[in-house]
Write a structure and sequence with these properties.
The protein is mostly beta strands. It contains four helices and twelve strands; from the N terminus they run H-E-E-E-E-E-H-E-E-E-E-H-E-E-H-E. The protein has a twelve-stranded antiparallel barrel. A hairpin with a 7-residue loop joins strand 7 and strand 8. The longest helix has 19 residues. The protein is elongated, with a radius of gyration of 19 Å. The protein starts with a helix and ends with a strand.
Amino acid sequence: MKNQLKIAGLIAALMALLIVIPAAQAADYSIGAGIGIAPEYEGSDDYVGVPVPFAKIAWSNGMFFELKGLNARANLLPSNTWRLGPVINYRGERDNVDNSDVDRMDSVSDATEVGAFAGFDYQNWFVSLDFLMDSGNAHEGWSSTLKGGYRWPVSSNWTVLIGAHTTYADEDYMETYFGVDASNVGASGFSFYDPDSGFKSVGLDLGATYKITSNWSTQALASYSLLVGDADDDSPVVDAGDEGQFFGAVMVVYS
């Protein structure tokens, strides 16, 4: 509950920051919701349904606030090309999971991660670099994700997105989610494993938007990540699950 209140407060602060900036004038608003499936935890081969809320305020000068799923960000640059601003991300806990071996490990609490992003969006090409740090004591580390791709306007109604991503994580993050030691082994029976910092995943992103009317649209999202480096099958946590991680969602959006 504390983390949920913290997220709500930070999101409200971001929105207030954008609204009071004098440079921001006319704005477009979008709101929507959907449902998705995601791994129960990083490295899991069990999947759970997840809600996917969506909201966006985009000003005519290029500034915006966006909430997608459990990730919120705001572009504070008055530019239709360049992006720079804060990011908030919520990462769920690892507790009471279906995998009996991983469930016998000590649980990992949920995390509210805060940081920043920078990038550009030009002629349907986009690149973004995120940096996130744990604001509490869940993993006490940081990670950085580089993603890019192309939005292809197939027709007046259809737009397709094709992209790729990779994530680098520090040692604290890697030890929390993929490591096994005396502090977290619990009754799992796993052998001890001490991962180092490094690239933890690479993947592909796909998306499609269909414009139903001038105000209503549907969006489908899919992402596949492959755990690599010290986050792959060398980790007993991943070896008990799957190094391939899939996320998919369908949303309805009103603009």
